[in-house]
Amino acid sequence: MRRYRYRTAALTGPWRESPDLALRDAARARQARIEEGSPPRVEWTVPGRIEEGRDESASAR
To answer: What are the residue boundaries of the structural domains of the chain, listed by start?
Structure first.
């Protein structure tokens, strides 16, 4: 299963189920701003990105 989190030089967010949830975490932490639209526009207030990882506990089963 793929997992997503935001990463900036200052902070790293928790792993989430979708990139959208990870972006919302970044916005709550004031690391990014999300401008609503189709598609939503993301402006990082500090250099950052969404990181993709794999849930290791799911592959161990």
So the answer is: 2-56
